[in-house]
């Protein structure tokens, strides 16, 4: 059983909770547990959408610097793939995901949040990738996902300076999608995720795959990916249910099974 990362499921929503007080430092054990819990959320049919939450005070203040400081070049060369996989684990979940951010989301903590489909932050949030101040760069996907999200110029500013970005600036540059009071962060994330609790799960997974995979290639290849995924949905029960319900009752009334 995981010690620092848990998955709680209620009403179709899975909550991945980071719980390594006081700052949820993401050491190698946490990274490994993130992979395990993300894989569990991916395979469980009763999980339709996922919230990633660090608690009421902090999301995650980054990787465990004390642990990394003791590592040699050889040790990190062998460990970096696992580190990147752990901090990217949320991005691999084939379901709608949202990061609920309170307080600090720094370094590896921000990299975990970048793997979500949506980010909701408290107005007290501070986000950043300060690895440059340690003489290194983001290594858990930060240089890649941040640049894709906010553009290369803004990403370079954040990475080069290591500065913290407040909630309002994060909203203005697209780093987060919504800002609410700190004590409303989880509820806002739950409201967003709950939209998908009775959704067409296979279509949602296909939509996510089409967008994510398409962004990593040229337009023609992306369109080919879309064609393949679109046609494949005609083998699902939900496509039959959805189209019949539309014809019989109009839009938005289908009761999907997730099959």
Offer a few descriptive terms.
259 residues, three-stranded mixed beta sheet, alpha/beta
Helix/strand layout:
Layout lengths: L4 E6 L2 E6 L9 H16 L5 E5 L11 H5 L3 H15 L9 E5 L2 E3 L1 H7 L3 E5 L3 E3 L13 H9 L1 H10 L3 E2 H6 L5 E3 L4 H10 L6 H15 L3 H14 L4 H13 L10
Parallel strand pairs: 2-3, 3-4, 4-6, 5-7, 6-9
Antiparallel strand pairs: 1-2, 7-8
Describe it for me?
- The protein is α/β, with parallel strands linked by helices.
- Helices cover 46% and strands 15% of the residues.
- It is built from 11 helices and 9 strands.
- The strands form 2 sheets. The protein has a 6-stranded mixed beta sheet, with helices on both faces. A 3-stranded mixed beta sheet has the order 5-7-8.
- It is globular.
- It starts with a strand and ends in a 10-residue tail after the last helix.
- The model has no long low-confidence stretch (mean pLDDT 96).
- Rough outline: globular
User: Widest sheet: strand order?
Assistant: 1-2-3-4-6-9
Distance between the termini: 30 Å
Q: How many β-strand runs? A: 9
Q: Helix segment count?
A: 11
Poorly predicted tracts of residues: none
Beta-strand percentage?
Answer: 5-15%
What string gives the helices and strands in order?
Answer: EEHEHHEEHEEHHEHEHHHH
The rounded Rg comes to: 19 Å
The chain-level mean pLDDT equals 96
Overall SS class? alpha/beta
What is the subunit organization of this protein?
Answer: single chain
Major beta-sheet overview: 6 strands, mixed
Q: What's the helical proportion of residues? A: 40-55%
């Amino acid at each position: 059983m995981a010690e620092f990362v848990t998955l709680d499921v209620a009403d179709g929503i899975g909550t991945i909770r980071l719980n390594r007080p006081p700052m949820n430092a993401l050491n190698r054990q946490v990274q490994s547990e993130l992979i395990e819990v993300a894989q569990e959320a991916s395979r469980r049919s009763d999980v339709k959408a996922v919230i990633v939450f660090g608690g009421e005070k902090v999301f995650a203040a980054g990787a465990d610097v004390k642990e990394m400081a003791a590592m040699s070049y050889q040790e990190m060369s062998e460990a970096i793939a696992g580190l990147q996989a752990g901090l990217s684990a949320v991005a691999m979940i084939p379901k709608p995901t949202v990061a609920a951010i309170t307080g600090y989301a720094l370094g590896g903590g921000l990299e975990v949040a970048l793997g979500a489909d949506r980010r909701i932050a408290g107005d007290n949030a501070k986000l950043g990738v300060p690895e440059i101040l340690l003489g290194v760069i983001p290594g858990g996907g930060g240089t890649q996902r941040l640049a894709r999200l906010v553009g290369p110029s803004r990403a370079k500013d954040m990475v080069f300076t290591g500065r913290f970005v407040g909630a309002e600036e994060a909203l203005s540059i697209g780093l987060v999608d919504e800002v609410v009071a700190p004590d409303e962060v989880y509820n806002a994330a739950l409201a967003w995720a709950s939209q998908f609790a009775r959704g067409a799960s296979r279509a949602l997974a296909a939509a996510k795959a089409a967008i994510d995979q398409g962004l990593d290639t040229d337009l023609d290849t992306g369109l080919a990916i879309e064609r393949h995924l679109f046609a494949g949905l005609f083998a699902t029960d939900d496509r039959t249910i959805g189209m019949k319900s539309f014809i019989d009752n109009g839009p938005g009334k289908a009761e999907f099974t997730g099959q």
